[in-house]
Amino acid sequence: MRETLRSFGQNIARRLPTQLNATIRRLAVASLIGQITIILTGGAVRLTASGLGCPTWPKCTPESLVNTPEMGIHGFIEFGNRTLTIVLALIALAMLVALWNLRHEQRTMFWLAIGLLASIPAQAVVGGITVLTKLNPWVVGVHFLISATLVVFATLLVNRAFARPPREMRPASPIIRQLALASSILVGITVIIGVMVTGSGPHAGDPEAPRNGLEPDLITRIHVLPVYLLVISAVLLAVLAWRRGSGDLLRRGSLLQVAAVFAQGLIGYVQNATGLPILLVGMHLLGSALLLAATTNMTDLAFRSGKDPATPSAKPQLEESGTASG
Prior knowledge:
mainly alpha; 10 helices
């Protein structure tokens, strides 16, 4: 029996990819799209007051695993969000299987795939706690932050699925790397404070759900401070990327980040000035996911693009290259 299973496993392994191919790239893109989509569906749950559309967990009702017609649109929206988790789990599992023969050569991708798959049951449990605590805003915030982290993982997975070898990428200067790292930290701070702003605001997911007790105007003003710093760092990074002759990937990455920063800032300002309409809040949620992806992409490119030839540690490599070519 053991030999039969081993032989079966070997036959399966022989059919799996031995190099990065279109299937792996499609799965990586599907994973990123799925992680962004579940942020949107989670936002729809909250913005339509469907947070308790399924009033219990893991079942939708004490008697039914799925939503029932009597639960109406709220039950449909909440159960649809739960169902998407299963889709993400299947994509993550397929990615893990597709990378099996590459688990040593593409170790980072393999561990990212493991992280995405392992986080899904954890996210489901936090979602269950969210329902059982009647949408406690701090638990809801943790639920969103896990999703935000998964967008980062999925972006890194996409980058590596489509990546050029580092030796083919023009090096990023130390200042660009420092600005990219600063941007990532500022985005993280902005998102965390943004979660607190949301927890103090009107869109609780249910009319009876509690709020976190923070003063909305004060926490919103605090939220804006890292945004200003983020705008400065993103613009400066883009200017340096173009003036210092960085590679095309870094240049495009810097522009994507600047576009995401300004779009998200504009939406945030308008939604706050107009009383937080549902459509704009949903767009702000989408913007947060895209900002996370754009900043992760930029930072990843900056740190994977080789060392700056001007740094002392890179000189031996240049000398060796020159000797070889001579």
